[in-house]
Fold this protein.
Amino acid sequence: MNKKKLHVKTGDTVKVIAGDERGKTGRITAVNIEKQKVTIEGLNLVTKHNKPSAKNPQGGIAKVEAPIHASNVALVDPKSGETVKAARRTNSEGKSERYSKKTGEVI
């Protein structure tokens, strides 16, 4: 039962570095660790057709955010706005924290 780790988590601001949405930034709303995919708010919209049901008697077409592979996104530093690589270290209180490899500041 090895848990895989990703370089991003829910709530992070990321920039898409590959694919149709390249160059756009957004906030992560969901993370799927097993499939290594992230869902970004307002990006990678796909058309979903809904059949009529008891809850939705009309049915219809909706735009839904589809997941993107985590390797196609880069973490954005909230202070500078640039993409950075993140690493983990233990602070003086013994807690793990993420920091920018470029600037050394906590993210």
Q: What stands out?
A: The chain has a mean pLDDT of 91.
